[in-house]
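Q: Is it fine to ask for two folds in a single conversation?
A: Yes, each is treated on its own. Send the first.
Q: Here.
A: Result:
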Amino acid sequence: MNKWQEFRQASRMHFVPLMAICIVQGTLAAWVWNGEFNIWIALITMIGACAAHIFSMMINDLWDYRSGADKAAFESDEAISTDSGYLTSGKWSERNYEIVSWCVLGVALICAVVLYFLSGWGVLLLGGLGCFMALFYVVPPVRYGYVGKGMSEMAHLLSFGIFPVMGSYYVQTGYFDPRLWILSLPMGILTTLTFFNHHFLHWKTDKQVGKRTLVVRWGVTKSFYFSIVLLSLALLSIVMCVVFGVIPIYGILALIVAWPLCRMYSEMKGEKRNLQNHQRLLWLSLRTSLQFGGLLILLQLISRWLNI
């Protein structure tokens, strides 16, 4: 295995398309609504945002490893570990993992500085807030990801939905648009749903080490129904996008993509909420999020071509 493949696995890069979709959405909104598009700014934004996402995943793994959360899940028969495994298995040393993490953050910061000089103060505002939430999700003394009470879910909605969509629009135009709040909701809520569902896989070991996610606080049953609420809100946000003219009216057809995920939730009601089914639910949530994102991008392009 070469170094690039190792990095992809260590950084859990399979989640990065969630961020990339948001960047494309905001960039396309600037082009579709205002006719403004600078490819170099778009590329720098994409590199910086994806680097920030990778840093958030790696620093999360690093401090979950240090807290004992990942090691407990790795060694338990009652949990499925969702980290990269590079620390718990000893493939990378803790020191090397930390160095790579900070180097990735360095890339994100360089992109942010360049975009600040090209586009203005909004980059520092959104970038600073995003950096704070990524760093202190599990890093002391804040560690709000260990507190629960919905703080993690709100951070995911902002960091993987609202902020990247608004930011990628801002760097192209130099201002914000109220419609961005609505445009960012489907991906923001679906990404929140995806990350929420991964807590089901190791809630018992999270509880052992003091990581009080909502699943730990509420228990599996209540959390499962909250997961259904998140999916319902994501579907409702698609309808809102149509009602407020953010996407064309035929965008309502995107709801069809959610059918397999809805069916999975239906199957898991009752006595079928075991670890294996929750693992399937996690990956189906990720797949549905990516499919929704792809369709929303396609709808934005179609509205541009048809001048809707």
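Q: Second one now.
A: Result:
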Amino acid sequence: MLYSLTGPQSEMERSIFDGAALAVHEINAGGGVRGAELEFAVFDDRSEVGLSVAGIDHLCRTEGVDIIVGGYTSASRVAMIPAVHAHRALLMYPTYFEGEETDHRVFYCGAAPNQYLADYLGWIAGNLGRHVYVVGSDYIYPRVLAEAVQRLGGRWDIETVGNRYVPLRETSFADVVRDIERVRPDVVISNIVGLESTTAFYTEFHRAGFDSGTLPIAATVTTPIDLEHMSPEVGDGHYMVGTYFSAIDSDANRAYRRALLEVRGQRRAHAAQVGAYNAVHAVRLAAEVARTTDAAGIAEALLGIRFDGNPEGLPFCFRSNHYSAHPSYVGRAVGGEYDVVAEFAPRLPEPWWLSRDPLFAAL
């Protein structure tokens, strides 16, 4: 497993690691893999993309690992893939992201944009307004999503009236908020990544006199980990899209939340964490089918497994393109969590939805 367990991204990535570690605990409590205990090695990249590559080398060369469950930012994933190939390993990438990629050594355990952004844009247009201001961190995920909003927004008469990027870990948002005041959009779509930046933006936004009633934020990356660092008057009432929220009403989710607290002491649950949880369970199922832990055998078997304990609300499985099926939800922030206010049917994953007409067919 490879996560940022220290450094600026550590609070978020430790919570993702909790999902993966919980799955290991459950597997071993149930008898392990083919009668043997599932063991794992951990590398901390200290929130530095360059160390993610070193982490792959260490895990594969020194620890003898064939399968890596890890990574969070798209920058880390892109950096790791050449090293994954060099070691003939597999990467189980846990989180939803910008798509526009397929790789035979990567299994994408989170959603592609057509699985969460398409319905979200329609919901925003129908419930919050059609004049949107987009703000995001300056790297691949926010830029691709902003392009998606601009290119696809016309389907719902959505107009992008402003678009700003800030450096990763930026904490000064006065200029951005002044520009929002000048433009006066109906809604702000936030693709800001990182605890420090997200908290700073929401706080500055509130200080300027905005709240969810006067100008709502519709986020794609603001998790309960971020909300926990905001006062209720700053975060409450704003919106977030996700393939998972802790408020999902299902036996599988209730069991997951209970075990997450009892085993890992973690109260906050979110989509990337669930992706890591599903990834480990998927590898276990694949190992049982393949009767090997060799990367090639696991990769082939992963395409035929089905994990019924997925807290998202439907069985977890992979398509032939290594992407996975997901529902999507809109949540409204209340007291550091999200209440589900809209639910959409699962969509087939379409990685290249910006490069050609996306598939918007429901499963």
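Q: Anything structural to flag on that second result?
A: Two points. Residues 117-242 form a domain with the Rossmann fold fold (CATH 3.40.50.2300). The longest helix spans residues 10-29.
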